[in-house]
Fold this sequence. Notes:
- This protein is mainly alpha-helical.
- The chain is built from 3 helices and no strands.
- The longest helix is centred in the middle third of the chain and has 32 residues, at 37-68.
- The model has no long low-confidence stretch (mean pLDDT 90).
Amino acid sequence: MASADPVERRVALLGWVSLTLAVAALVALFAPLTEDEGQQLAIKVAALPVSVVAVFIALRSRRLVVAHKVEHGWQPGLGGMILGGFALAAVVIGVIIPMLAAASGA
C-alpha cells in the first residue's frame, strides 16, 4: 500500500475512512450497545449521518479513481460504498420508516 503516487495514497486513505465509518454505522445499528431503548434508538438514528458521510467519502474516492486512472488502493473505497449503502438502507428501513409510521398512526 506504500505508494509514491499521492493520488493513490489519497484514494486509499479516503477508502479506509469510508470503510471505517460504514462499519461503525453498522455496529451502531445492529449491536446492542445499551439496555435503555431510548438510548438505543438515539444511537440507531445517529447511524444515519455516519452512513451518509461514509457513502459520500466513498463516492469522492471513486471520482478520484476514475479521474486519475488509479490502479491500486481503490478496494477499501468500494467496500465503504457497499457497506455504507447497506447501512443507509438499514437505517431508513429499520428506523426512519417505523418512526414515521408510528408518528402518523398516533
